[in-house]
Amino acid sequence: MDLTWTASRLVTTALVDVRHTVRVHSPAPDGTWTSEDLTATLDVGLRTVSVSAVDAHRGDDLWVVTTGFLEPMELSVAHLGPGTGAETGPRVALEPVRQAPDRFDAIGLEVSQHWATSADGTRVPYWQVGPADLPTDGSTPTVLHGYGGFEHALTPAYDPVVGRAWLASGHVHVVAGIRGGGEFGPRWHRAALGPHRHRAYEDFAAVARDLVARGVTSVERLGCTGRSNGGLLVGNMITGYPEDFGAVVCQVPLLDMRRYHLLLAGASWTAEYGDPEDPAQWEWLQTYSPYQRFDPSRPTPAVYLATSTRDDRVHPGHARKMAALLQEHGRDVTYWENTEGGHGGASTAAQWATWHALAWTFLHERLTG
Question: Does residue 104 fall inside a structural domain?
Answer without folding.
Answer: no
